[in-house]
From TrEMBL:
The lineage of its organism: Bacteria, Pseudomonadati, Pseudomonadota, Alphaproteobacteria, Acetobacterales. This is Helix-turn-helix domain-containing protein. Residues 16-65 form the Helix-turn-helix domain. It comes from the Bacteria. InterPro entries: DNA-bd_dom_put_sf, HTH_17.
Length: 91
């Protein structure tokens, strides 16, 4: 018996997440992820027709980029600003 390789489209379906799916994986609300996307502070996304999709590798990279060891490091302030509701708004 020969086992056929998985279809490419099923691989992509497993690797690309919708906004609600990505938000669930990140343990944040879809609205928060949408806000990050509008500000340019969230993970890289793809716009395919009317859909916004996130690749799991891009989510991993984004999570690593906002990782901090201490509240005294610059990365902490940057990550904190990304989550701020005031980020990207005028005075």
């Amino acid at each position: 018996m020969t086992i056929s390789p998985p279809r490419q489209d099923s691989f992509l379906r497993e690797q690309l997440l919708t906004t609600p799916q990505a938000a669930h994986k990140l343990n944040i609300s879809p609205r928060t992820l949408e806000r990050y996307r509008c500000r340019g502070s969230g993970p890289i996304f793809r716009k395919m027709g009317g859909r916004v999709l996130y690749h799991v590798d891009d989510i991993r990279v984004w999570v690593e980029n906002v990782a901090c060891r201490s509240t005294s490091e610059t990365a902490y302030e940057v990550a904190r600003m990304l989550g701020s509701r005031k980020h990207g708004r005028g005075p």
